[in-house]
Design goal:
263 residues, alpha+beta, D-amino Acid Aminotransferase, Chain A, domain 1, D-amino Acid Aminotransferase, Chain A, domain 2, 2 domains, 9-stranded mixed beta sheet, 5-stranded antiparallel beta sheet, 8 helices, globular
Length: 263
């Protein structure tokens, strides 16, 4: 069951014209949100923030705006799903799908995961400041990570600085402060990231944005990543060019961040 162009469709196939730019070039923008308590209006669902993200990208690209009321209607009909993906085509068509949470998400949140640093800039995202349908670089990085026994990939820039993961934003802890890579047009300004930054600052918890050079990463006590679906997941180990990095997933700072994610 999914929603497409104003209609609820019972099936698993979407019919597109063979000349559709969304098919040929990945000319779409999308956002993925977690629906809390089956409510688009739940504060943690961040419904308006997701709509604002889509609006900003559509405006920058000069595309046709969708019917926002119709998007809300489709999302409401699918809100039994805990995760919704809303896609907008260049001509304003909307496509909404739902899915379940990963069955091992809670285990990942508590025990941490293995990460892999994608050493090649081949894996960078196209138009990184926007969430477009051309996600090939990040997808390839995630496939490679999984082949190596990891669950998430970390993308880098041409100088080897860490940017973001294939699906979320990075967070690190050291010297009594939370750190996250600065945007600078190379990183998606994630909704979860924005919420965490604001929440940390409002509670007078030290947080800063900076460049994640290899030297900076070397002595981080904690590394985790966030997005709106997984909330926050720590890394237990990371396979990097400098060798295997190991972190405590029971660190007190992680519990602090978990609580803020859900505040």
């Amino acid at each position: 069951m999914f929603w497409y162009n104003g209609e609820l469709v019972d099936g698993e196939s979407l019919c597109l014209n063979i000349t559709d730019p969304g098919l040929i070039y990945g000319a779409t923008v999308f956002t993925t949100l977690r629906v809390y308590d089956q409510s688009l209006d739940h504060p943690l669902t961040h419904w308006q923030s997701h709509c604002d993200r889509l609006h900003r990208s559509i405006e920058v690209f000069g595309w046709q705006f969708p019917d926002w009321k119709r998007i809300r209607q489709g999302a409401a009909l699918l809100s039994d799903y805990p995760v919704l993906r809303i896609v907008i085509f260049a001509d304003g068509r909307e496509w909404i799908t739902g899915r379940t949470l990963a069955p091992d998400l809670e285990q990942r949140q508590q025990q941490g995961i293995r990460g892999w640093v994608a050493e090649d800039t081949l894996f960078q995202r196209s138009l990184a400041a926007h969430k477009t349908g051309n996600y090939l670089g990040a997808w390839l990085a995630l496939q490679k990570a999984q082949q190596l026994g990891a669950q998430e990939a970390i993308l880098i820039d041409s100088q080897g600085n860490w940017l973001e993961t294939s699906t979320g934003n990075l967070w690190g802890w050291k010297n009594g402060c939370w750190w996250t890579p600065a945007l600078r047009g190379e990183i998606l300004p994630g909704i979860g990231r924005s919420h965490l930054l604001a929440a940390l600052e409002s509670q007078d918890i030290a947080v800063a944005q900076n460049e994640w050079t290899p030297d900076f990463i070397e002595d981080l006590e904690v590394i985790a990543y966030s997005n709106c679906v997984v909330e926050m997941v720590p890394f237990a180990t990371i396979l990097s060019p400098q060798g295997k990095l190991t972190f405590k997933t029971s660190h007190a700072a992680l519990e602090q961040l978990r609580n803020i994610v859900l505040s």
